[in-house]
From TrEMBL:
One Pfam family it belongs to: Glycos_transf_1
InterPro entries: Glyco_trans_1
GO terms of molecular function: glycosyltransferase activity
Lineage: unclassified sequences, metagenomes, ecological metagenomes
Residue ranges constituting the Glycosyl transferase family domain according to the UniProt record: 76-234
Organism, scientific name: marine metagenome
Protein name: Glycosyl transferase family 1 domain-containing protein
The entry's keywords: Glycosyltransferase, Transferase
């Protein structure tokens, strides 16, 4: 799914992080003759560079069905923003909170942020919101049942994704299926799950200020927003398991047969 690389440093101090990165590279070399399956070209290329001989790229599927008809959703204030992820260091959800502060204070835009998920960073994220004075604009929802999560995604104007690195970005596709574009950091994986100015937007750099600037730039472009919603929904339909699973099963069966031939 993902070559962790710098993510080791987000979770562990040196030298544990260095050991983790070393053992990851060692494991890839150890299993270099085993075929790998991954979703993104970035991960495929990293695996090849680390010695894996055969890497097949097949997209991951989602269970979320693309809406047949998109509900009306005007790009009005307050902007409804959402993050959906584990609250872990590598997800950098604090960057979404800081981007919210930028919108409110530097771009004079009203906005609200829902944070869906749970994890070790919850307390520090709450402290971040309080320190920045935006706690009244942030709602910590915890882990939600699928139906409630889908409803929250459907209601939002944009999904924000600020991860240090992603293997792909499944929640981007889930949001897209429900007519919600994503605005993401220009990090590996996310730049493949989001097509810039087609199904969403990619920030100029991975910083809260750049993310906020990208969000603010679309406020006056209602037509583009509606086009992105439609394009995102249409593309997401191609990633439902009904479309993805046959190719994935064929590949797995091919690998299984070749082992015994």
């Amino acid at each position: 799914h993902e070559v962790l690389g710098p993510i080791w440093c987000a979770f562990y101090p040196w030298p544990i992080s260095a050991i983790g990165r070393w053992q990851e590279r060692f494991t890839h070399r150890r299993y270099r003759h085993v075929p790998f399956w991954t979703a993104s070209s970035f991960t495929r290329d990293l695996l090849l560079k680390q010695g894996v001989e055969s890497v097949t790229q097949i997209p991951y599927g989602v269970d979320t069905r693309a809406l047949e008809t998109l509900p009306e959703k005007e790009l009005d204030e307050p902007l409804r923003l959402i993050t959906v992820s584990r609250l872990a260091p590598n997800k950098q959800v604090d960057h979404a909170i800081e981007a919210l502060w930028c919108l409110l204070n530097e771009h004079d835009l009203q906005a609200q942020l829902k944070i869906v998920g749970e994890g070790q960073e919850l307390d520090s994220l709450k402290q971040c919101a309080e320190k920045l004075g935006v706690e009244e604009h942030v709602e910590f929802c915890g882990a939600l049942p699928e139906a409630e999560k889908d409803a929250a995604l459907r209601e939002a104007h944009f999904l924000l994704h600020t991860s240090l690195r992603e293997g792909w970005g499944l929640n981007v596709i889930e949001a897209n299926a429900l007519g919600t574009p994503a605005i993401v950091y220009p990090t590996p994986g996310l730049v493949e799950s989001t097509l810039h100015k087609e199904t969403g937007l990619v920030a100029d750099e991975d910083s809260p200020a750049a993310l906020a600037a990208m969000i603010a730039s679309v406020q006056s472009h209602e037509g583009n927003f509606q086009d992105w919603r439609t394009a995102a929904r249409d593309r997401a339909a191609e990633f439902h398991w009904d479309k993805v699973l046959p190719a994935a099963c064929d590949q797995l069966e091919s690998w299984g047969k070749s082992k015994y031939e």
